[in-house]
Predict the 3D structure of the following.
Amino acid sequence: QKEVEQNSGPLSVPEGAIASLNCTYSDRGSQSFFWYRQYSGKSPELIMSIYSNGDQEDGRFTAQLNKASQYVSLLIRDSQPSDSATYLCAALYNFNKFYFGSGTKLNVKP
Amino acid sequence: EPEVTQTPSHQVTQMGQEVILRCVPISNHLYFYWYRQILGQKVEFLVSFYNNEISEKSEIFDDQFSVERPDGSNFTLKIRSTKLEDSAMYFCASSPRTQPLSSYNEQFFGPGTRLTVL
């Protein structure tokens, strides 16, 4: 069974702080990884994807991948109340099959 | 900005009935997916579809489920005989990926159809 694990939270950070979200995966064959944001009752919205070891930055978001440790993270700088949502980590396996974690709920307090 | 659309937004059905959930993927996308999310649980992969055939399916996607691309725009998920445990939000997604064996597989989700089985 291929698993993607996330701490369910909630993770509470003050406005303007850095939020750090983490994810581990069980299958070393996973090719790439994705972070989605999901507001309550809504569909997942893609934030970032990462395929290679190291960091990838997009605006206030930085994704980090360490394949040796089977670890993916997402940093959100200058967190805003509008960032409050559940963040889903997903792993791609066999080029066509995705496994999602249960998500980490983030609360950004004004 | 193009987006994935899904109809209906909410479907209520009786146990044992057949339902068809409809999706219109983004027009130049080549890969299509169905997921479900039971309330309070994780998003679960059901099936991926490319070039008019199933590419991958999960253990959930048993003989009660089928997918079809009946024309150039629609992508449907059929559940033949619904069970109470099929109650969930069903999401369609599409991807513009141009190569079958590619890690560059960003997916864009539709708004979902909430299926309630009574």
Remarks:
- Chain B has a mean pLDDT of 93.
- Residues 30 and 96 of chain B are 6 Å apart (CA to CA).
